[in-house]
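Please, structure for the following, as tokens.
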Amino acid sequence: MKNLYAAFMLISVGFYAQTHRFIYDYQYKLSAEDTLTKKAYFHLDVNSDKSYFYERKYFIADSLQKANQPFGFEGKMTDLLSRDRKGGKVSTITFKGFDSFLMKDQPSQNWKIHQETKRLGNLKLQKATTTWSGRNWEAWFAAEIPLQEGPHKFSGLPGLIAELSDDGNNFSFKLIRSQLIKE
């Protein structure tokens, strides 16, 4: 019985120590008048108490640094976001030149959930809409992934946000991959 209890504890600690990584394809325009669309990849890492949203180049730079390899960034460094999953507070680190600034807020969206559904690979997605930060947004969430998380500062739906875009087609996130990380 003691060994069974120890095995159960090890399994449950291992489950909660894992991080779920979701990779999004992010397409955006620098301004509403711009016709050129830029592209980047972002990671959403979710563990039991926090989520982190950051551009893939941070992950690559961190991996190179751990391997003692030279690295650098091209262009502007993007914001790093972390969310307290229990309280909802978001900490954003913004970089301006050689300075960095920490901002804290507690964003929330007032979602309207629609009956409309569609598929993304083998995921069934459901539509939701909101007006937030001066824009109208359309999200598609996967209720079968019971994480109330999404890209950037978006959260609060009864499942992971797999697709998100504004009605002006200036910003678009699409889930392209997920993985489980043990460390």
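The two ends are 29 Å apart (CA to CA). The first strand starts at residue 19 and ends at 28.
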